[in-house]
Amino acid sequence: MTEEFPTSFSDPTQPPLPDAVPPWLRAITQRARDGGIRRQLSDLSRRTPRLDDADATRPSAVLMLVAGDPTYEPTPGTPYPEDARLLLTHRAPTLRSHSGQMAFPGGRKDPEDATPIDTAVREAQEETAVRPDTMSALAVLHPILIPRTGNVVSPVLAYWNNPTHVYPASPAEVADVVAIPLGHLADPSIRITVGRQGWTGPAFWIGDLLLWGFTGGLVDGLLREAGWEKPWNASPVYDLAETLARSANNEPVTRWRRNPQKPSTPTTPNHKN
């Protein structure tokens, strides 16, 4: 018999709901607990990892921390409050793994972590100095395998009920910490599709930084599942390496260079917003 990840990671037990979930987060909270967001991901990302998977290592978790007016009542035209925002980090360009990428705070499970929530909150505190007592877990998504690194990541959706000052608490890991307005992420003008070697995925310009890959897919899934997405042009597909070279991510781009035998894809210009 094949052994799977511990139950809390492979088939997550949902946390108790907070006493008062903000009205504008109630629908996405229930959808996420019922398997939403994950439904919006690619077939590969929805594959359930197992311990005997040659690509898999130990479990990890990331924190999808959302802030905004706790009393706001959503309307069809304005489904989230003006101050709604999502916490992201810019990973240090000197890291060996995922260097320079825009990412949710998070990391690998420690032995003392009983659940993905423990991992996500601990890692977020270590990276951004966010206080655990200022947030409430809303939902735990099923784990997602990242074949290139072997990380098996459980995203944790949480509400930041009392935002306090955050900063790169671990400069060796994190270059910057930013709370991005949901209104910016939903803006069609900052959205593009990037591709490499047959893979394509959504991306977002955050000033001169490019949010893409695993985190970009989760943000895209969150916007769509929550009904926060605005129509945007998903074509053409821009070359990932060329786009990253025009960003301020400072990511190594050699590994993403396209096969020279394949036709070139359009190149996106530098984008500042």
Automatic annotation (TrEMBL):
Bias-annotated ranges (Polar residues): 1-12, 261-273
Gene3D superfamilies: Nucleoside Triphosphate Pyrophosphohydrolase (3.90.79.10)
InterPro entries registered for this protein in UniProt: CoAse, NUDIX_hydrolase-like_dom_sf, NUDIX_hydrolase_dom, NUDIX_hydrolase_NudL_CS
Domain Nudix hydrolase: 56-215
Cofactor annotation: Mn(2+); Mg(2+)
The keyword Protein biosynthesis belongs to this UniProt entry's keyword annotation: no
Keywords assigned: Hydrolase, Magnesium, Manganese, Metal-binding
Biased composition regions of type Basic and acidic residues, renumbered to the chain: 31-56
Positions of region (Disordered): 1-56, 249-273
Homology family: Belongs to the Nudix hydrolase family. PCD1 subfamily.
Record protein name field: CoA pyrophosphatase
Taxonomic source organism: Corynebacterium parakroppenstedtii
